[in-house]
Specification:
The chain is mainly beta and about 300 residues long. It is about 10% helix and about 40% strand. The chain starts with 12 loop residues before the first strand and ends in a 22-residue tail after the last strand.
Length: about 300
């Protein structure tokens, strides 16, 4: 006589050490994340009445976080000022969280990224040191915000109100494909939403923020010529005067930051000529109806 026994599925086991000896557990058991949460992604998008900024983590969302407006962003460790484009600066800090792998590479993508949103302009990393992650969020304007967490996956969300009207302007960036092949124009315009009436100032601000990740993938780049920003912009009698900060240099190139600033400002009907000054207040032709650049931007 043959006796048929019920067939049970075979389950592979693994031996796990415990304080009392070895314990057999299913091999397919999910391995839980051990250690501090790890930042795996940053994204932002506009929703009705707000810009939503999301930080996604592997493991639980950091229990200790601090979000506040600051006058400037300081790099963790060195204390040096980190440049962030925008009219207001929101600092986002996570304690007991990491943003790098064992080789020290960022686990969340680019450490500096630009967005073409009404409120959020830039998100810039300022530190990933001793399980403390710090970011600066450059905003078009100071506005109310709300911070909360979501699960599956773990996320820290910052909703920033955008209770204002915007109008589209253009910022002009170097088109690396055209430049490499000698095909003009060397710049390509992209659209940005800005808050009136200071549209020219805001357009320059967006220019200094650089292209978005999608625009970079198309070969667009911001050539800074080592300018760190601009301290003043005035428009009077058709002449725009821009005072740049930083140690300007063309580095021998025929294409400089001036080739992006001039078309960005000349899109406005109130601007016929653009005069660019260095940090010492010098430009080649400070008077008269003409464009002008400082000596340092000559090839």
């Amino acid at each position: 006589m043959i006796i048929m026994l019920p067939i049970r599925p075979l389950i592979a086991t693994a031996m796990v050490a415990t304080t009392t000896g070895l314990l057999a557990v299913p091999a397919q058991a999910t391995v839980q994340h051990v250690g501090p949460p790890v930042l795996t992604g940053i994204r932002a998008a506009h929703h009705r009445g707000l810009d939503r900024l999301v930080f996604e983590f592997r493991g639980r969302a950091p229990a200790q976080r601090d979000v506040r407006y600051v006058s400037r962003l300081l790099a963790d460790g060195s204390g040096r000022t980190v440049d962030v484009a925008g009219g207001a600066l929101l600092r986002v800090r996570f304690d007991r969280a990491d943003g790098h792998d064992q080789r020290g590479r960022a686990t969340y993508g680019p450490t500096r990224r630009t967005y073409a949103l009404p409120g959020v302009i830039q998100v810039v990393n300022a530190g990933d040191l001793e399980a403390t992650l710090t970011f600066g969020v450059g905003l078009a304007r100071r506005a109310p915000y709300r911070v909360y967490t979501l699960s599956r996956p773990s996320r820290v969300v910052v909703d920033i109100a955008t209770p204002y009207r915007t109008v589209p302007v253009r910022a002009y960036f170097l088109n690396t494909t055209n430049y490499a092949t000698g095909r003009t124009p060397y710049t390509t315009a992209v659209r940005r939403p800005v808050i009136p009436p200071a549209t020219a100032h805001s357009a320059l601000q967006r220019l200094f923020a650089g292209p978005t990740q999608a625009e970079k993938a198309r070969g667009l780049r911001f050539v800074s010529s080592k300018a760190t920003g601009f301290s003043k912009l005035t428009i009077k009698k058709g002449i725009a005067r821009v005072h740049l900060t930083g140690r300007l240099t063309s580095a021998g190139s025929t294409f400089t930051i001036a080739d992006q600033i001039i078309p960005t400002l000349k899109q406005f009907p109130t601007v016929s000529w653009v005069k660019i000054y260095d940090a010492r207040g010098h430009t080649q032709q400070p008077h008269g109806p003409s464009d002008s650049i400082p000596d340092s931007l000559e090839p």
